[in-house]
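A further point concerns the way the authors explain their paired sequence and structure data. Since the whole study asks how a given chain folds, the encoding of that fold should be made plain. A single example would do more here than another paragraph of explanation. An entry of this sort, consisting of the sequence and the corresponding backbone structure tokens, reads as follows:

_____
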Amino acid sequence: MAKAIMVQGTMSNAGKSLLAAGLCRVFRQDGYRVAPFKSQNMALNSFITREGLEMGRAQVMQAECAGVEPSVRMNPILLKPTNDTGSQVIVSGEVWGQMSAREYFAVKKTLMPEVMKAYDSLAAENDIIVIEGAGSPAEINLKDDDIVNMGMARAARAPVLLAGDIDRGGVFAQLYGTVELLTAEERAMVKGLIINKFRGDESILTPGVERIEQLLGIPAVGVVPYMHIDVDDEDSLSERLQNKEAALVDIAVIRVPRLSNFTDFNVLDNVQGVSLRYVDSVRGLGSPDLIILPGTKNTMRDLKWMRQNGLEAKILQHAAAGGAVLGICGGYQMLGETLSDPLGVEEGGSMAGMGLLPMHTEFTAQKERTRVTGTFGKVDGVFSGLSGLEFEGYEIHMGVSPSDSPLGAVHDSVSGRSGPDGCQHGSVYGSYIHGILDREDVARTVIEALARGKGVDPAALGSVSNETYKQQQYDILADTVRAHMDMKKIYEILEAGI
């Protein structure tokens, strides 16, 4: 069985996902078979595996760092929030039900056998498992039924590295308070402290590091700098949401309240001369060359939000003037003529769509969840250059949107079925396929078409090399971890276990 090590944090967004990914990459570079694991993840940014099962995107990124194919075993429980108090619960890649927080907390411990089945299966195939916790292990109202922090560390017999976020301030209080709120048994499992997201002169920090080691009797195994690194982490959206100035080619993604799968557009954001801006107001929209309506966990509610704040009207004006609009998944559903929800899957009832595409959506109880390959058909309008190009990606949606003007044809790699996808009208396009832009020739065609449309020479833009760029970022992450964490000590912790 594999040896395990666990990264926990003093709070959400302390950088656990990135640190775990960096360790996966280092261990892989050192010749070990390694896999990531997170027993329970809460995120709207999900992924569909080759088998058609759904898992959190952060563990996909970590798997890529480890050089292995993503498996739903790496994230056996995924919670996808639908409102402030409830989530869709996905267990081993399949929808288990819709639950309020109280309902889920009452039953979550019964899922531990499923969690351990996934973990033991991975452990039997690998040398090292890098486990990521969630939130903080010191949530004293949740500790008794914990299955993701100390409960998971205990089950996997995994020593814990505790990371604090110095960028938010009070890192020594974070570390001290977290450890002191643990039981004696739990404190004994914490074998190393990490100060994460540090900026400045490390020598000034040294006295504090020495003092916290003395107070807690736990060694510090790293002071990791704030990393300006571009990976598909659930927390990375906060970096992408920062204000940007419009570049030679300007693309605006509507930041709906229940935004999901924002990684669909990362390939566009990596090109020099292209600005990808996330906007949530009419004032911030400006005059982009392309407006993207992204995926959402609640299409009807987010369309109402756009209707109320004036963004829908601005998008309609943009389209009427011949501007390009692209909708993916929920964003695609919004672009149609009507939305109908007879079963109450989302809001219930029906409502008018934006009327930019000649199709109607009806929400169904069956969740479509599959990987696909496909080919663009005869594409009209500004993106006519896409005609005949191949694409690949995955579908995660509830609802059907039949169209007489499909954007392309897809082959379902899980069921073997083939059929049309999406819809187009003029320079308005929609598709259910997450990742439809990821291929370099597709992204390049979209960007160059937008550039030519405003008189910009495409040669003035940078190259599109998504996979190469991604692997470079993973190597930078590993180099940073090696340089700023005591890997000799971490290997000793890993070997000793608990």
